[in-house]
Structure formats: C-alpha cells, structure tokens
Amino acid sequence: MSVPAGPILIPQPAVDSSTYQSSVSDGKVTPGVMPLSLNDAIQRGLKFNLGLILTSQNTLSARGARLEQLQALLPAVSGSVKEAVMETDLQAQGLRIPGFPAIIGPYGYTDIRGSLSWSLVNLSSLENYLAQRHNFKAAQLSAQDARDLVVLTVGNAYLTVIADGALVQSAQAQVDTSKVSLDQAAGNHQAGTAPLLDELRARVDYQTQQQTLIAAQNAFQKDKIALARAIGLPLEQQFELTDTAPYAPFDQLDPDKAVQEALANRADLKALQEQVAGAENARKAATDERLPTITFNGDYGDIGINPSHSHGTGDAVGSLDVPIFEEAKLRGDAKQAQSQLEQMRARLSDMRGQIGADVRDSILDIQAAEKLVEVAKSNVDLAKEELSEAQQRYKAGVSDNLAISQAQQAMAQADEQYVASLYRHNVAKLSLARALGVAQSNYKDYVGGK
Description:
alpha+beta; two-stranded parallel ribbon; 6 strands; disordered N terminus; Outer membrane efflux proteins (OEP)
C-alpha cells in the first residue's frame, strides 16, 4: 500500500475573474425578440456562466482528491488468477548431473489468490485526509461564492445595457430637438430674418448630436453582446430588456453592523477559513511523518496443478516502519507545510479587512450616488427650462440661436450625468449585496431599492 510521501498541497483559486464574463451557450435561438428580465438573465447566468461551471468542476476535483486521501486509511484488497506453464533448462541453471535430463517440463500450476494490505497506524495519512476534507468543504463554499459573483457580473451587465438604452433615447431626443432648431434657423435665413451663421451653427449642432447618437447605439449593441456572453445566449438571439431598474432611495445602514453581517455571510471567507484549517492539518501531517507506522500485508489463495488438485496457502506479515535517517526530507516537508499555513493565515487576515473595506466602500458609493441622482435630476429640469427659454427668445426674434446651441449642449450633458448617476446608484446597491454575501438571495431587494 502506497503512503503519500509528504504533506498535501493547499488548493489555490484557479478560476480567473474574466471567465465570469463568458459562458457556455445552449445554442437555442428563440424566434422573434425574446423578452429578458433581470431575474431571467441572472437565472441563465447561474446555469450557463463559465466561471460558475469551472468552479463547480473544481469541487469535483477536490472530491476526487479527498477520496484518494481516504484510500490511504482503508485496506487495499486485490485478487489475482494465475495460470502458469513453464519449461526449464537445468544445465543453463548450472545443474549438470549425469543421467539427469537437461530439460524438465513442460509443467505448470494454477494460483487463485486474494491479497490485503492495510496501514493500521499512520497518523500522517490521517491528518492528510482531514486536510483534504477541509479543502473539499472550501471548494463547495467557493462554488457557493461563485454564484454571488455571477449575480454581480450579470446584474452589472444588465444595468449597463439599461443605461445605454437611456443614453440612446436621450441622444435621439437631442437629435430631434436639433433638427427642429435647424429647420427653424434655415427658414429664418431664407426669410431674411436671421443670418447664415445661425443656420450653420444649427447644422453643426445637429450633426454633432447625430454623431453622439451613433456612438450611443454602437455602445448599446456591444454591451448587449457582452450581456449575452455572460448568460449563455446565442449571439444570433434578438432580445429586449423588460426591467428598467428605476431609482429608489436605499435605507441608511450602520457600517459596523453591515461589516459583521458580511463576516458572518461571505462564503469566500468561510472557504478560506476551511483552507486554513486544512493547512493546519497538513502541517500536522508533515510533523507526523516522523512517527512509526504499522502495516499489515497478507494473502490467501489456492494453488496446485489445477483447481481440482490444489491446496490453500497464505501468509500474514505485520511490519513496524520507523524513519531513521530522513532528516532533510522531514524538515523540508515541515517547512513547506508551515509556509503554506502562514500564507493562508495572512490571506485570511487580509480578506477580513477587505470585506470590511468592500462593505464600507459600497455604502459610501450608495450615499454619494443618491446625492448625485438628486443633483443630476435638478440639472435636467434646469436644462430643459433653459432650452425652452432660449427657443422662445429665438422664435420671438430677440436673440440669435447661440443660446439654443449652448442650452442643447447643457441638456445633453445633464441627461448623460443623470443616466450615469442612476447606473452608479444601482450598481453600488448590487455591490453592497455582494459585499454582504447575499447577492444571490436578495439581489431584487437591493437593485429595486428598499
């Protein structure tokens, strides 16, 4: 029976964060335009997202490693059936006896036998198994945490498309407004009541707004592709979003209580705690390599010229193995295991601090975004009033259209800032749900407000 030569290695995260923006497509295209809600998108992401799939496969790998370590503690039983036919040259073996045949045989035998090997006392293998059990639990928790990351990734992609759609609508409205101003300036110029400069200025504004609209439409389509890639939709599938993620103020949170909630809920923190426990067992396994091991080996079978002319035979051997001169290996294994343990402890301490920072950052982002939304909404109202006033003055002939051009630019900027502030607010709430470790279960409450 083989015994692991040294301490097991602590598994490291193998799934890159960029994989959560990819998926395994189911390849099914629904005829027409498919309505897609935020909940539908997240459920598809939880089924087809590549990051979650790879993390789940890591869990299967950890399960296999745990079973391998378990086998080191269990008896190994094997069976064999041998049918031998032999012929021997005695002279080649050095037996040259006068009157004795040089060749004997052919002769043979049948051997049916079962063997058992069991390491009865091996504390190092026991600690390695306990370490692998912790690592398997850590892999399960990492898969659970991956679901929160999928919700965050898909939710962010969905909110980005919503924001892009709002920018397209705003740009289209600016194009329509610029077209009205251009027609008015051209009419006034033809009537001789306005200079050519007014028409040229209005035409430049109109074409500038057209450029903005083209860029907004391009970003909208590209971000729809990114959303489809994250949730496994075929790129040929046409879809439209059904949720608008309206603005809703969020209840004020106590940062200290929120941090404590996050420390209790975060699956990635629990996974790292399991890895630290596994590293501690691996360190003990390295120390226990110095201890004696007791092994039993035995077999029993039936051997003879054939099964009907055979006799049972067997043997049993118990051994006590004591390492005497393996100091370099034993110290090397112990130092490697201790190094891994210290690294895991340092990562655990850092993660606790990072979780606290994530929660506090998200709360600050929500508070700042709420103020930005209020200011941006006020700016939109003021810009609309300014544009209306400039249009009325130009129509009355008491001003040129420079004020209209400036008001249109202010209006476009105000709309863009308002859309951006709404996006930041909703993403900040979704990020807080992730920071608290409740993104998968409570994302609707956070994105939709409380």
